Amino acid sequence: MNLDYSQFFHMMPEVTLMALLVIVFIVDFVTAHKAPIVLTDEKTGPSPRPWFNPLVCIFMLAHILVNICPTESASVFGEMYVTSPMIGVVKTILAFGTLIVFIQARTWLSRPDSTFKEGEFYMLIISTLLGMNMMVSANHFLLFFLGLEMASVPMACLVAFDKYRHNSAEAGAKFILTATFSSGVMLYGLTFIYADAGSLYFNEVAKNLSATPMTLMGMVFFFSGLGFKISLVPFHFWTADSYQGAPTTVTGYLSVVSKGAAAFALCAILMKVFAPMAIYWKYLLMVVVVLSITIANLFAIHQKDLKRFMAFSSISQAGYIMLAVVGDSAMGITALTYYILVYVVANLAVFAIIASVEEHNNGVVKMDAYDGFYQTNPRLSFIMTLALFSLGGIPPFAGMFSKFFVFMAAANGAQISTTMGAWTYAVVFIALVNTVISLYYYLLIVKAMFIKHNDNPLPTFKAGINTKMALAVCTLGIVAFGVCSYVYGWIYSAVTM
Length: 497
What we know:
- The protein has 497 residues and is mostly helical.
- It has 19 helices and two strands.
């Protein structure tokens, strides 16, 4: 059988990522300098390869520009791989978030105990992004699972990247164990689906699937397995410890890019594959959304470690993201994708500031260390406030519009006179109430920076040029994505094409 190599032209995001992975590997292999492992918290020094990070960022930007144009809908390789304008938009958003992570990672990778692993970091990140791309383009459960594992295994290595510092090794162990368990649960669920449908192709499963006790159990197991990846309650137990132990830059990547890809994949599979069982998964999803938003908010209020605080914040945000799926419509897919885009810039801005403070203040991540932060670092305090306001949904920032579209998508077409409609409106109301709670704990950080008095605030420091660039991009996104209607229109047009 002859392979039609022209099919690879429909996989340009993956092809360009593979090319980038090979280039980074060759460059790193040729130019690497062996260095001893440093087990101390030494301050950032000059990098032996100051050109490496800009080179990788330029190539990632080229990858985005090559693939930003809308792609035609196509299915290749026995219809296991599909692409569409909407999938192209999602891949562009994921690559955009990865570019921001690359930009802000330079300062951290300039440390003596990290600089010799710089090439490995880029290759692991690109590998995870490649797996996420395969996952969102899958039209077959086997390809979906391979993409999921391709993203999860390198991510475990990233979480344990600073294995000689803090709790990174422990966080990596917890991540890989929970990821393995969730994958096993998911595969167990897929066996029930295959037994009933007789196929693993999404289209065939949707045609042949029937709502039997066996398939309902399969759907629940599959949902549970992917719920671990998204950190939905009650599948969130690993999140706080892994976020706390992982390097801050990796935590930012894990909280936005990885979560965004898994959320979109779950949305697509629920709407496409499990469409005959929509009445069941909608009730299940609404319960999980309410639990995720409420429990995460209550736990976030009591956190003193800022990375654990952001971990519970990300769990709550995952609940808001999946709330858009309840509407089961094109508006829901648009709202979910738009929310992910806004969440990327707002959350990465927060983590960029946390990482910068951590680097300049002996690894401080405690919330009380930010008391009086405005006195010594007013610009960073201002940007932090903008990002937190966006996460909380305060107008006129982009986060307010993203939450508004999610609520509209969830309530779209719901009739309060029906049982499903009443449930939907109740869930939307609970989400609105929880928005107030989230505003409260986000404002706790703002209060600490601007109002609380501290006789010994964090010293004044200058953030690195890369951190400034990342913050500039994120701040522009926080402001512009909410005001510029073209962004939402771009996503909606891709959904409806």
